Amino acid sequence: MTSQDRFQSFEEFYPFYLSEHSDPRSRMLHYIGSVIAILLVLSAFTIGPVWLLAGVPFSGYIFAWIGHFLLERNQPATFRHPFWSLMGDYKMLWQAITGTLDRRHFNRDEDQSL
């Protein structure tokens, strides 16, 4: 059993999720992709066309995966925990917006902003 397989709940998973997003540039890429996804959903249902929804997964994943593969150099948690990872994306975004992001879980000593 790997360390990623041990989670029984989102509450157990989330500190691990944060530790996989130590690089502030990677977090910013996640935020950009998540906000674009939200805007695409809102646009599709308010002004249309509905086919904008096809861009939601692409916008969310492309920015996140750039952050993981080029900056963090780790495997996205989406591969093992897709639903919890999606929840983690939006919880991390909300906490960054509200200033409540728990930086204790980041495993680097560099700038912990964002």
What does it look like?
The protein is mainly α. It has one domain (21-102). 60% of the residues lie in helices and 0% in strands. The chain has four helices and no strands. It has helices at residues 10-19, 24-46, 55-72, 82-98. The longest helix has 23 residues, at 24-46. The chain starts with 9 loop residues before the first helix and ends in a 16-residue tail after the last helix.
What is this structure's SSE topology?
Elements: H1 10-19, H2 24-46, H3 55-72, H4 82-98
Helix pairs in contact: 1-4, 2-3, 2-4
Task: Count structural domains.
Answer: 1
List the total number of helices: 4
Cα distance spanning the termini? 33 Å
Alpha-beta classification = mainly alpha
Radius of gyration: 14 Å
Helix-strand string: HHHH
Shape: globular
Number of strands: 0
Global mean pLDDT: 89
Regions with little confidence, pLDDT below 50 for 5+ residues: none
Percentage of residues in helical conformation: 55-70%
> What share of residues are in beta strands?
under 5%
**What composes the largest sheet?**
none
